[in-house]
Amino acid sequence: xxxxxxxxxxxxxxxxxxxxxxxxxxxxxxxxxxxxxxxxxxxxxxxxxxxxxxxxxxxxxxxxxxxxxxxxxxxxxxxxxxxxxxxxxxxxxxxxxxxxxxxxxxxxxxxxxxxxxxxxxxxxxxxxxxxxxxxxxxxxxxxxxxxxxxxxxxxxxxxxxxxxxxxxxxxxxxxxxxxxxxxxxxxxxxxxxxxxxxxxxxxxxxxxxxxxxxxxxxxxxxxxxxxxxxxxxxxxxxxxxxxxxxxxx
Length: 249
What we know:
The chain is α/β, with parallel strands linked by helices. The protein contains six helices and seven strands; from the N terminus they run H-H-H-E-E-E-E-E-H-E-H-E-H. The strands form two sheets. It has a five-stranded mixed beta sheet, with helices on both faces.
């Protein structure tokens, strides 16, 4: 079968009404990162009903990834369709119920619909349409839906460590339908600054005059008023000296 013919058969096999209804159903289920259990159960049930081999992969208590597979006949390359189940919390400015899944003018409005519940349902129903159209793939088609993308990627780490591998993958994050071959990442690190704790009124660097020298003699600190020669008084340092002191703490 030629590619164009196969594509037309698959597109024709997509149950559009069912796809829209299911997308609205999962949009109504809050799944803020850390609370993906309910929406995960709904996805796992639907994927099983659509004929996929479904595995729930434990990540943490009440959190699991879903791995659904359409088995190939053998001898071909495998492909993973990848997405995440969690969303961030509702932001300010909503004019519709963020969990109402309102369908209006051909658009569904809801929290997480773009990032990325609509993509998740599209992947599930794409795999289903291939089976429904009777297209026999040589390689396995895997649909992997993970938890925890919005807070460190714990679901993806678990997926990678589990040994589930394919020859290629496609992540359907929203890109305005553009194809991207690279992606940004984030790194977390800690910076320790060693020095003396001081007071900095009015954004000025200040050093207690009495503590400036071990002898207790008034040093060159920062002062308020005309008491710069008294122990414990403060005096505003010139800019050049403030910079010098900060650099050599």
